[in-house]
């Protein structure tokens, strides 16, 4: 009987034993939950970083594309406005020629001014120049390859490209910080 009692008393947990087991189980559960929460947090953090990266790079490329398209639109609009303005104000081409010739070094002789044929006629009419007039130290040369509103000044060894395309390209390059020159 004593032996029976010792065996049963030893196998019956006390309240203190139960409290320790419960505390131990709670601690183990807490640690397992903490590890799982850290893993899930890390996974969510990685997903969030990937999502941020996904949205950041396409927007950057999209911004660059939009900037390029807006610049192209501005250049096209400028070309159209300049062409329209030349039809209204022929004096613009004369001002361009004067400004370009002033860029030449020193007193240049034998200056050749290449213009679109319509612009050359406007200049002749505005300045009352006859094609056979040799009193000037410059001559007008008609070049249909030059877009209206531009000119090329040649005074060897100097040359100035004041074509509409070149001026607009320089304008676009200054707006884009030099990127346009590579196009």
Topology of this protein?
Layout lengths: L1 H10 L3 H74 L2 H12 L8 E5 L1 H11 L10 E5 L8 E5 L2 E5 L1 H13 L7
Parallel strand pairs: 1-2
Antiparallel strand pairs: 1-3, 3-4
Helix pairs in contact: 2-5
Spans of at least 5 consecutive residues with low confidence: none
- Tell how many strands the DSSP assignment holds: 4
Secondary-structure-based class equals alpha+beta
Counted up, domains total 2
Q: How helix-rich are the residues, as a percent range?
A: 55-70%
- Tell me the span between the first and last alpha carbons: 104 Å
Order of helices and strands: HHHEHEEEH
CATH topology of the largest domain: hypothetical protein PF0899 fold
Strand order of the largest sheet: 2-1-3-4
- The total count of helices amounts to 5
Radius of gyration: 42 Å
Question: Main beta sheet: strand number and arrangement?
Answer: 4 strands, mixed
| Binned strand content | 5-15%
Task: Provide the CATH architecture of the largest domain.
Answer: 2-Layer Sandwich
User: What is the arithmetic mean of pLDDT?
Assistant: 79
Shape: rod-shaped
Could you name the CATH class of the largest domain? Answer: Alpha Beta
């Amino acid at each position: 009987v004593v032996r029976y009692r010792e065996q049963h008393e030893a196998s019956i947990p006390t309240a203190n034993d139960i409290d320790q087991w419960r505390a131990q189980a709670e601690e183990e559960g807490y640690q397992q939950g903490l590890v799982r929460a850290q893993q899930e947090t890390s996974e969510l953090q990685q997903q969030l970083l990937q999502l941020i990266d996904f949205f950041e790079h396409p927007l950057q490329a999209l911004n660059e594309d939009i900037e390029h398209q807006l610049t192209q639109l501005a250049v096209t609009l400028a070309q159209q406005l300049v062409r329209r303005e030349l039809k209204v104000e022929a004096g613009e081409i004369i001002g361009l020629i004067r400004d370009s010739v002033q860029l030449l070094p020193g007193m240049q002789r034998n200056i050749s001014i290449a213009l679109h044929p319509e612009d050359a006629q406007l200049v002749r009419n505005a300045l009352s120049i006859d094609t056979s007039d040799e009193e000037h130290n410059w001559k007008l040369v008609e070049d249909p390859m030059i877009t209206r509103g531009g000119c090329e000044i040649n005074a060897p060894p100097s040359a100035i490209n004041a074509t509409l395309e070149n001026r607009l390209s320089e304008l676009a390059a200054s707006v884009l910080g030099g990127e346009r020159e590579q196009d």
